[in-house]
Amino acid sequence: MNSHFQFQYPWFLALLALLPVYAFLRGRVGKLSALRFSSAEIARAAGGAARSAAGRLLAFLRIMTVALLVVALAGPRFAHDRTETQASGVDIMLVFDLSWSMMVLDMGGHDETGTRFGIASAVLEDFVNKRPNDRIGLIVFSGVPYLASPLTLNHDWLVENLHRLHIGIIRELGTAIGDATAAATKRLQMSKDSKSRIIILLTDGDNNQGEIEPVPAAQLAAAIGAKIYTIGLGIEEPSHLPAFDVDTGKFKHGPGGELIPTIMLQPANYSVLGQMSRLAHGKFYRATNRRDLENIYNEIDRLEKTEVKLRRFTTFTPLFQWPLIGAGALLALELILSNTRFRRVP
User: Fold this and answer.
1) What's the pLDDT band for 337 if we cut at 50, 70, 90?
2) Which strands form 226-233's sheet, in the order they lie side by side?
3) 69: region left, alpha or beta (phi > 0 left; psi from -120 to 50 alpha)
4) Are the C-beta atoms of 13 and 7 separated by less than 8 Å?
5) What is the pLDDT of residues 63-74, one digit of tens each?
6) Domain locations along the chain
7) 4 beta partners
8) Cα distance between residue 101 and residue 242, in whole Å
9) Per the database record, which ranges form the VWFA domain (predicted)?
10) Nearest residue to 69 via CA among 262, 320, 256, 332
11) Please, which of 51, 168, 185, 327 could form a disulfide with 221 given CB 3.0 to 4.6 Å?
């Protein structure tokens, strides 16, 4: 909001230019006193000084009264310029894989922040911050899906929940892609006033758990008009899964500080993700490093634009009452003085 001072009728201020002319024509004094004195010299000295002082002060008060009345007529006011944003936002459900394989270090990192999970979390947060006018929700899954955040415009709260996540927080093992997609679809279906519905599924594995297969889940999403963007994470080579603490999501280290390798994980088959995106009129992506993933979310951000309308309007706070009150006070003072201290004697 931007505020500034202005006059509603500024042309009235031109009347102020007449006040010096009025003062000049009025002269320094008013009517002469009618008292008789025994000496003309005494009358001249006393009358001239008193007449001059009284005339000047009363004339000044009269001019200031008129000036304040002119200012009040000009309509002083504060103008408050406001801009309102009316956005036809997109409803977006983020579906985020928290299976153990997301702890693999194959995307250029060396600690927890460089795992598939760590890189994906940071990119997701950036994506959320770029979409202030969209309702965004979060489904996380491993062997079963959980709602981490319903659709909301309170993105700070959503990001806080994202920060609380770690690999191991879901104790049911596996990758339930179909169930997670169906859960996201159900949440989007509950949003009746949605202009556009989107699911962004990020995973590094094959569907091996759950009651609903990925392809039927994608068909359900397409039936309610939701697009599905699918992202397959990780390189196309076998990778070791380092040992980690499931209670904290932190790596375990050997005596020399080195990571402790456990099982060897094979690359996932992402053909199902491609089928899902085609059925739901979206797009399938592959990301093998952080830059790939950032570019993917940037492209989705460009593809799914939010319609934003700006409405500008101005409200006013009138201030005319203050010069009007001042004029009334000066007029009252003039009347009091002219009838008391500077009272004319006939």
Assistant:
1) confident
2) 145-152, 135-141, 91-97, 197-203, 226-233, 283-287
3) alpha
4) yes
5) 899 899 999 999
6) 2-81+313-338, 90-305
7) 79
8) 9
9) 91-300
10) 320
11) 185
Query: Does residue 140 contact residue 167 with C-beta atoms inside 8 Å?
Result: no
Which amino acid is present at 195?
K
Question: How big is the chain by its Cα radius of gyration, in Å?
Answer: 40
pLDDT digits (tens, 9 = 90+) for 133-190: 899 999 999 999 999 999 999 999 999 999 999 999 999 999 999 999 999 999 999 9
81 token code pair: 């310029």
- pLDDT at position 42 is 56
Architecture per CATH, domain 90-305, reads as 3-Layer(aba) Sandwich (3.40)
Residue 73: what residue type?
A: L
Task: Determine the Cα–Cα distance for residues 93 and 277; give it in Å rounded to an integer.
Answer: 14
Please answer whether residues 263 and 241 qualify as being in contact, where contact means their C-beta atoms are separated by less than 8 angstroms: yes
34: tokens are: 């009618």
